[in-house]
Amino acid sequence: MSDTQLDQFKATFKLFDTNQSGTITKDEMEAALVKMGYKPTKKMVDDQFAAYDTDKDGSITEDEFVDMMVKKATSTDATANAFKSFDENGDGFISVEELKNAMKKMGQDMTQEQLEAMIKSVDKDNDGKVNYTEFAKMMGSS
Fold it and tell me: How confident is the model over 46-69, as pLDDT tens digits?
């Protein structure tokens, strides 16, 4: 992680910490996510706090926030690399054929029906292929 990225995470923390207390509360986290265009549920915010409020004091410190952002950035990079390995032609989608090839490389010989079922289970826009957003959600990186 570069110093520039760490500085960006610290600046973002200061934006989230609207009362400048040095910690982010659940209400501040929710308000910041709404401003960013997300529609966070109470469960989403609770899950973030359960995962990253390491001292379990009900707020997130700057160090906890930076740690959370580093982990998310690393996870996103890994998801992007995995997606690229499946998306053989680089068109931004994983087709049934590309999934078939990837599964074969992993030693899994699957039927056409199994492959189509896998695609269908994550294909939220029903276009018959998996885009990055659908892939990231499946991988738990959304």
Answer: 988 898 899 999 999 999 999 888
Q: How far apart are CA 99 and CA 86, in angstroms?
A: 6
pTM: 0.56
Give percent of the chain with pLDDT exceeding 70: 97
d(CA 13, CA 18): 9
Q: Are 66 and 6 in contact (CB under 8 A)?
A: yes
> 6 to each of 10, 29, 73, how far by Cα in Å?
6, 19, 11
CA 80, 86, 91, 92 dihedral sign is negative
Sign of the alpha-carbon torsion through 125, 126, 131, 137: positive
| Contact present, 47 and 60 (Cβ < 8 Å) | no
